[in-house]
């Protein structure tokens, strides 16, 4: 990983980059941090489907040219209503059609209870109608039992272009649905371009102890039997990796997350490759650690600081950074932590900053 010019997540290079899918996923990570602070973003999004629907209606109302004639008539009737009633009235008028539109006093219908508060399923159903009407290449949905989860998938894809407006400027909504709903992969475990041959990769699957025993020296494997603390064992492994694995920075366009075996076989890798390898060795040694992806903040020698996208390993509050070769003072800011079983985003400022004094480098 390389420099992050704007401090976003999953930094890749020090060149200016466009709003690619990798950066989009980073933005999604920030949204997750700010709004939800949990792995199960999809479930939480489904729970707040009313808020999302309100956002979409507000956006559509500002773009009358994008509405059908019938929709423009409905919006005209919604105009005098309080914001908290517009969504329910929208659903009612859409379902009742001409019969409801011919009636004059929508406010009276609200007061009488004829226009009822819609539940999540009803809101999701109408969100899907909106998405379907505005997207010609809308994927064939597999008749899901859980409409809010499907609607949540679409609103997440919708956020990728920066505006929740029911326009899906995203080429593989079906693939996203498969991952998020069918496979129930938490968003914080996904990384775009982690593998060249796979557009979406669950980073947790890259953590494996496969083939480690055949490719590690006896002194590392024997740490399992030695009477050292877990911290002491991790220091030995971190410094070993710093001597046998060469750091090889990859440009943004070709960033490839290697398996631990590939890093050992090649003898080189960048920061996340080091971190995945150290994490997998720790797993083999039965030491509880987590890979962390985030930002390292370094002074540049000119009175300013550089924010660099980085990856490392944490154990009991200490940082193990086998890819670093310098002793320069730095702060570490975590954005996502994961091991083989779980992954979650972190909220900045809530105990997620570690300092150089707690860091063990590769050399």
Short note summarizing the structure:
The protein is α+β, with helices and mostly antiparallel strands.
Characterize the structure shown.
This protein is of the alpha+beta class and 363 residues long. The protein folds into two domains: 40-185, no CATH class; 203-361, C8orf32 fold (Roll), CATH 3.10.620. It is 41% helix and 16% strand. The protein has 14 helices and eleven strands. It has helices at residues 21-35, 41-47, 49-61, 69-78, 83-96, 98-101, 106-112, 120-134, 147-159, 173-182, 218-221, 230-244, 260-266, 271-284, and strands spanning 190-195, 198-202, 246-247, 268-269, 290-299, 305-315, 318-321, 331-338, 343-345, 353-355, 359-361. The strands form three sheets. Strands 5, 6, 7, 8, 9, 10 and 11 form a seven-stranded mixed sheet that branches. A two-stranded antiparallel ribbon has the order 1-2. A hairpin with a 4-residue loop joins strand 8 (331-338) and strand 9. The longest helix is centred in the first third of the chain and has 15 residues, at 21-35. The radius of gyration is 25 Å and the shape is elongated. It starts with 20 loop residues before the first helix and ends with a strand. 37% of the residues are buried.
């Amino acid at each position: 990983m390389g420099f992050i010019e704007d401090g976003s997540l999953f930094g890749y290079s020090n060149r200016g980059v466009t709003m690619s899918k990798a950066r989009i996923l980073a933005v999604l990570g920030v949204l997750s941090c700010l709004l939800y602070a949990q792995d199960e973003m999809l479930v939480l999004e489904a729970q707040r489907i009313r808020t999302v629907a309100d956002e979409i209606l507000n956006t559509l109302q500002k773009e009358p040219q994008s509405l059908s004639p019938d929709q423009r008539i409905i919006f005209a009737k919604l105009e005098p209503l309080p914001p908290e009633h517009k969504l329910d009235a929208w659903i009612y008028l859409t379902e009742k059609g001409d019969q409801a539109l011919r009636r004059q006093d929508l406010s009276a219908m609200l007061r009488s209870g004829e226009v009822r508060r819609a539940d999540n399923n009803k809101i999701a159903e109408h969100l899907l109608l909106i998405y379907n009407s505005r997207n010609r290449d809308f994927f064939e949905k597999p008749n899901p039992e859980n409409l809010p989860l499907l609607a949540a998938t679409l609103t997440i894809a919708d956020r990728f272009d920066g505006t929740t407006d029911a326009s899906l400027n995203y080429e593989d909504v079906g693939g996203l649905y498969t991952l998020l709903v069918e496979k129930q992969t938490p968003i914080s475990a996904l990384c775009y371009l982690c593998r060249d041959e796979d557009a979406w990769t669950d980073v947790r699957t890259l953590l494996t102890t496969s083939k480690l025993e055949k490719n590690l020296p006896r002194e590392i494997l024997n740490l399992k039997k030695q009477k050292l603390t877990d911290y002491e064992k991790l220091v030995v492994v971190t410094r070993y990796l710093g001597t046998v694995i060469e750091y090889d920075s990859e440009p943004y366009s070709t960033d490839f997350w290697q398996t631990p075996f590939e890093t050992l076989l090649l003898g080189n890798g960048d920061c996340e490759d080091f971190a995945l390898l150290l994490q997998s060795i720790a797993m083999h040694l039965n030491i509880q650690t987590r890979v962390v992806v985030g930002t390292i903040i370094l002074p540049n020698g000119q009175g300013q600081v550089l924010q660099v996208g980085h990856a490392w390993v944490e154990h009991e509050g200490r940082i193990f950074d086998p890819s670093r070769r310098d002793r320069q003072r730095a702060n570490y800011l975590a954005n996502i932590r994961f091991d083989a079983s779980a992954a979650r985003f972190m909220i900045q400022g809530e105990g997620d900053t570690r300092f150089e004094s707690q860091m063990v480098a590769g050399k």
